Amino acid sequence: MALRLAADFDLRKDVLPGLRAAAGARGGGAGILENNYESLRVLNVERNGNIIYTYKDDKGNVFFGLFDCHTRQNEHLYTFEKDLQVVSCSVNRERTLLAASLVQSTKEGRRNELQPGSKCLTLLVEIHPVNNVKVLKAVDSYIWVQFLHPHVESNPLPENHLLLISEEKYIEQFHIQVIQEDGNGVVIKNSGHLPRERVAEDFVWAQWDMSEQRLYYVELKKSRSILKCIQFYADENFNLMFEAPLDIALSDSGFNLVNFGCTDLQDQEKLSEHPTLCVFTNHTGSLCVCYSPKLDSWEQITYSVFYFHKGHSKTFTAALGSADSRVTKGITFLNLDYFVAVYLPGHFFHLLNIQHPDLVCHSLFLTGNNEVVDMLPHGPLQSLSGSLVLDWCSGRLYRADLNRSYLLEFLWDARLDWEKMAVLHCVLSCRQDTRFLEAKIIQWISENISACHSFDLIQEFIIASSYWSIYPETGNMDKLLPYSSVLTWNTEIPGITLVTEEIALPLMRVHSFKGYWEKLHSNLEYVKYSEPHSHYSNSVVRREWHSLISEEKTGKRRSMAYVRNILDNAIKVISKLEARRLEPRLTPLFQEEDNHQRLLVGLMVSELKDHLLRHLPGIEKKRIEQMVLDYISKQLDLICQILEASWRRHNLHPWIFHFNRRASAAEFAVFHIMTRILEATHSLFLPLPPGFHTLHTVLGVRCLPLHNLLHYIDNGVLLLTETAVTRLMKDLDNTEKSEKLKFSIIVRLPPFEVHSKITWKICTLRVHPVSSNIISRNHVKRLLQDYKKQPRSSVIDKSSYSVEFLPLNYFTGILTDIESSSQALNAFEGHDNVDAKFVEEAALKHTTVLLGL
């Protein structure tokens, strides 16, 4: 299944054996609990992960126990020697105080022995050692209790703080001072008068965040739902952090609590008849409110997610199939850090991307046709902080995360483009063992390179994987770096429809922010004042790179310091890339300078660094530079990984650089992969590893017929690098076919007037007639460009010419006269043997070839 639930705690395995053993040690036998097994249940999960549970013995006495998640040991806390029903329970951090809310068991003929006239008692008990019991409340309405667990160094705390949540729709905070007596014994100071204050009132819904010590609650004002949040601190202070309007329908007569422990007062089977509401946050400053109204149709279900950190909401309507598929369970929302899972047992499983919710293709939707929707527990699941999930019915506490194995398997089986897109992003968000995940994805891409029609697999992989490699550095990267190569998605997802609406942003009630609140505030400010193009793109790099290449062709160049700085940036990236390498490289890359690609890499470093410095003023320059080097080297590394995987898969060897044998089917396959890589990087203007173009061109020469090869060259798919052309000139023989290929290549080199280093070097080799022909043409062109015709003698001295061919003899004489003049310029300075005689020999050779002599 897409979601993996690893059990952190199991009531039957972690508690029950110990209770049986303890009962046997007391001589009562295991039967003390056997007849009351159903009474064993979880009551609460505290911030430190400790779990409070309760059970009854055969006399009806109520026992409270605690399971320490660190030591994996059980501890008995307290026993009420009365037959009571537990509503709620909480223990302070030091385990010296226990708060419990209880109601009298309703058995005919029994009167309330604890407090006559009251339905519910809220008690505060000293349990270290067991001592006094104080009644905090004795009322006719139910009460829930929760100790605050602040993060502080001092131990023990001099004062404890306890929340009381009343069914009468108010929340109070009690301040409990404790003192030590008789060594380590702890008693309540001034227990007759405990200070208290009203925290909230007139609410219809409340949720406790145990990890962050936050209270969320909803008030109704003029029939409008207002979400509020209170942050509790280590001292007795607390702040109202924000208010946010919610476009949801809640009844003033209703009352619902989330994460305030478990109670059996509600019929869990009727959850589908009530609205579901919960709030999820994560460390990046996200704030999501998930809501599902009361089910009013057996054919479809509606749920909404308010992405306050993005400024919009999405309302989804999912089909439930036939009317016979009756919904008996409530919808479940689970917090999975970067995702929110929406689960309706037997019907669908929707994995929502909360960091990038704009496009529906970035979220995974599985319907009843997929077996996954029946593989999760069918009982009510409660999402706690830190991706913890509690199954109240079974008493199991799970740690939930994405199942990489299932997702990779699903990726191979996916048929629809949106499924491939969604699963690809889900897999890449799993940051453990990224090298393994990337290798599996590359294998999948290699075998499905043409399987997607809505997006480019290689593009999406490079953009998404490089994004996730740097995203943990700072939460603002989702606004500054591209997450996907796809900007729009108009294809419908079968089985679900959605409506997107703008929503009012939360109104922050404080002016000083730290931690999560600083990030949330930053997200909200970004929604308010975001620049239209804050995501980085290579458009500026594209213009600057083309400008530098153009200047190189015309012989002009920026200051040497500017160019040297750019090339130094490239050296840093390549050094970092080489440091990533864990084994020898199979592909013949990085064996040449390839200044054009190095310029592109260096420019990207410069532009991306400026972009991040502009938008991340609070991060030091050195750290940003490191992030940029990591990001760009990651992109190059991914390309190298794709090539390495293809090379290894087809068992190619470095001799691929030679031209003395025909291309194999494996070489055709690698050439195709390289062409797809080139297409993917070209539109995004991403850099390629130095040597890529040389290798691609060499493979092209080996794999393509001449007319196709020249077509690829003329359209810029294959680039004539100095290394590739030099090797071609040296390795090819002088047969007619090879000469034709060499001439076709050389005539496509830049002309001498464009200051082309490659043309100069190739032609000055002069090891082939083709080179001689090109050199002769350019030598003659240079000599004759300023030539002014002068009277010449009509008599030609035939003794000075090796061939009696008057037109050639006359032309050679003109060239000799020009060369002998003081204004003559040798087109190849330093090569004195390039003269009229050389031109004559080249012309004769060329004519002989044309005539087939």
Automatic annotation (TrEMBL):
Highest taxon of source: Eukaryota
One GO cellular component term: trans-Golgi network
Domain Gamma-secretase-activating protein C-terminal: 636-743
GO biological process: positive regulation of amyloid-beta formation; regulation of proteolysis
GO MF entries: amyloid-beta binding
Protein name, UniProt field: Gamma-secretase activating protein
Protein species of origin: Equus asinus
Protein's gene: GSAP
